[in-house]
Amino acid sequence: MESGFEQIKRVAHLPTRIASEFAKRIYDGALQPGDKLPTEHALSKSFGVSRTVVREAIAQLRSEGLVETRQGVGAFVRERPARQILLEDAKSMDRRNFRDLYQLRVPLEMEAAALAATHHTAEQMEALNAALAQISASEDWGNSGVAADLDFHRIIAESTGNNYFAQFIGAISDRISHVIAIARTEGQLEEVIERTIEEHTAIRDAIRTKDPVMARAAMRRHLIGSAQRVGLTIEFYV
Q: Whole-model pTM?
């Protein structure tokens, strides 16, 4: 399978750019459900990046619900809903778009956390713990850390027992990862890391103890903190 991809210039957060290239092909129909993506080695050569960057791009596509990975086999395009939410390219987002994104995320993800506290399975709790461990242990805070952060929020959405939450988070996940990446470049990195881990741990603990009220409150605190880390002060009414 010929990739037809152009090599990408070495700029900030390459995995997101590579994931966007694949997402466009999937939405345009150039890649169909069931199609296998090229190998990490082939993609690394096509894009002119390391295999680590390719892995993070595939992880982001998985978080967006666009591909599934099969151990020892590869990554495949997933079946997807007939209707998709069409939004502006993440790279074109400005501060107003950031504000609009948080105004959507606050009520959506607060309720998702509350529902996840009530409906999560043991397997989903295990996956959430693994995502939190990856956030905490990540050495590449700008790439693997972002992917793990996105995974954390995706797992919560999937744990609601309501597939629409997962679909919505998947639809806006590239915007979320873009803002996460910016937040990690604009503040004191050590402080950002410490606060981010603390906030995610509080969310995980509330979900683990099946406390929807605390889960909702912990998610609210996290999103307020996240908005502040990109210089936003937003009025929240929930």
A: 0.67
